[in-house]
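Data deposition worksheet. Section B asks for the primary sequence of the deposited chain exactly as it was used as input, without tags or linkers unless they were present during the calculation. Section C holds the resulting structure in token form. Section D is free text for depositor observations; keep each observation to a single sentence. Incomplete worksheets are returned to the depositor.
Section A, Depositor: J.P.
Section B:
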Amino acid sequence: MANEIVPLKTGMVNCYLIKAGDGFILVDTGISLSRAVLDRELEKNGCVPGKLKLIIMTHGDIDHSGNALYLSRKFSVKTAMNMNDAPMVESGKMLMDRGSKSLTRKIFQFSLFRLPKFKKVIDGFERFIPDVRLEDGFSLADYGVDAKIVLIPGHTPGSLGVHMADGDFIAGDTLNNNKKPVISPIVHNAAQLKDSIEKIKALGIKTVYPGHGRPFQAGELFK
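Section C:
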């Protein structure tokens, strides 16, 4: 079965629709501030109630899970993620200690989450309990997509990617392309991230669909 990845224009974070037969899978959901934009993008691409089959979060950060409960209710569809990140969305504690004390993470958290609008978003996060447990090798065939889940912890404990049969790869924040293709500088566990990068390399992927920035060819990062 041939499946297409459709990037949605939602601002600061990338959300992706995967065409799944006569419906769709949504990967990542943005923050509540982008809700109206996301609604328009979904409708524009034909993703209306009755057409969405599953909502996948590549990880638990608020910019990827912020609209999960809202969309789950609107479309009457289940949410899915790796359970290692479930405590984040179940508690709403996005600044919980994930094992990293790196200067990069401290600066990022201090500068971003002290902004009034983001503090409001965090305080108003709609907590939820994920419906579907995604493990390494989980097949999306039952949802009409020829793809498998690849666990790639490091950025967060439960970070994952979606590996399409044609070689495309939705990477979440493990790989980004704001200015150029890079491995995430925000690290929960450096050893895990290093292993995850080697795991991604071994997949032989072609096009990377990152959590932030434009899609890029894997060869631009992995020489």
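Section D:
The chain has a mean pLDDT of 90.
The CA atoms of residues 181 and 220 lie 7 Å apart.
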